[in-house]
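Proteins fold reproducibly. Look at a sample protein:
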Amino acid sequence: MRQLLSSLSYFSIFFAPFVLPIAVWILSQDYEVQKHAKRAFLTHMFPVAAGILLLIMALSAGSFGAVMGYIILFAVIYFGTFVYNIIQGLHVLRAYA
């Protein structure tokens, strides 16, 4: 059960990116599950925070090239955290197997 909840916290990026990790983090009594749920929640929140910051920077930039650069940077950040969550979910499943 431990590895299932921990890995689902990471894999929830596919179906419930914020709801499942925060619920597991709050409701779980197991320290390891809470640790993974917290880490998954923070990695799900990172692209949102980066997107808000990049949106503010893009709106103040004014040029089309700068805006496109910020969009590409956001795509790289989002893709990186997406891949990280998948890798961590697989790692957690293999660690307890």
Q: What stands out?
A: The chain is about 85% helix and 0% strand. The chain has a mean pLDDT of 90. The chain has one domain: 2-95. Residues 10 and 85 are 5 Å apart (CA to CA).
